[in-house]
Amino acid sequence: MRKLALLAATTLLSTGCAFANVDVHPPDTPPGAALAADARGGPGRGREVIVYAPFADARYEITRCGMQKNGYNMDTADVKCTEPPGRWVADALAIELQRAGYKPLRADAVPGPTTIVVRGTVHQLFLEPKHDFFTLTVEGDVSARLVVSTASGLLAERAFYVKGMETGLASTEATFQASADKATRHIARAMVIALTQLLERYPDLGAPSASAPVAGGIR
Amino acid sequence: MKRSRLLIALGLLLTLVACGRHVVLDPETVDRVNERAWTVKSEPRRVPVNVADAGSSP
């Protein structure tokens, strides 16, 4: 009987068990002073932007944000997001806009004729480990589509897709979190760089004209 | 003997069903899906209000 239990345990362990669900959360918000320091002289030049949060959620798998896998590449447990991905990506964009010198306004701000309005749809936020010989890499894919508009008639769209990778010895919560942080920052930066490139064509846009007060908090 | 065979069969079964889905994309595919430019569907009209202030706020 003891031999049997030992064999069963060995068989189970040889599959590289990862049966526990993992929670991941959005990257920690940097302190306001750090954001203000980064914003000085940033490319945003105080342009007003309303980011409508949360973004729409059009993910293929809406019940989870990733999967745990064992050594046989089998799906063994879920990765859960503590924040809905629509809120997660919208907030990350708003923070990155602030860091780049833009002035994000609350979603209830009334846009002026040149206020930049950003809406988005999250198409993917998914984390999964990829087993290497001795280590494993948690890959995080984030995909979103932004629609930028102004009351003066601008309408532009662009899709973003990034990958965040974190290598570790085991698929622990910390490895998943590091991968999620990297992917989130990567897509937020890509979005802000792209938005800045778009707005270079239209220097008039984003002038302080919204009638509602500036957001104390971004949410 | 019979139990050992059962365990071996179980091990083989676990190996055979090792067909986990791979949802994330390859880096090359990510590059292809990621759009390189904005699609501008409509250009803004010139608005004279506050134009002088554009980009000048702190």
Give the structural class of chain B: mainly alpha
Mean pLDDT of chain A: 86
* Radius of gyration of chain B from CA coordinates: 30 Å
> How many beta-strand elements of chain A?
9
What do the pLDDT scores of chain B average to?
70
Distance between the termini of chain B: 80 Å
What quaternary form is this?
Answer: heterodimer
Spatial shape of chain A: elongated
SS-derived structural category of chain A = alpha/beta
Helix content of chain B: 25-40%
Strand content of chain A: 25-35%
Low-confidence stretches of chain B: 51-58
The tally of helices of chain B reads 2
The largest pleated sheet of chain A is described as: 6 strands, mixed
Q: Helix segment count of chain A?
A: 4
Structure summary, number of beta strands of chain B: 1
Cα-to-Cα separation, first versus last residue of chain A: 59 Å
β-strand percent of chain B reads 5-15%
Which stretches of chain A are low in confidence, meaning pLDDT under 50 for 5 or more residues running?
215-219
Question: Would you give an account of this structure?
Answer:
- The complex is a heterodimer of chains A (219) and B (58).
- By secondary structure, chain A is an alpha/beta fold.
- Chain A has helices spanning 2-14, 32-39, 85-99, 173-200; strands at residues 22-24, 48-51, 56-57, 66-69, 75-81, 103-105, 116-131, 136-149, 155-168.
- Residues 215-219 of chain A have low confidence and may be disordered.
- Chain B has 2 helices and 1 strand.
- Chain B has helices at residues 2-16, 27-33; one strand spanning 39-42.
- Helices cover 38% and strands 7% of the residues of chain B.
- Chain B is rod-shaped, with a radius of gyration of 30 Å.
- With 58 residues, chain B is mainly α.
- Chains A and B meet through α1, β7, β8, β9 and α4 of A and α1, α2 and β1 of B.
- β9 (155-168) of chain A pairs antiparallel with β1 (39-42) of chain B.
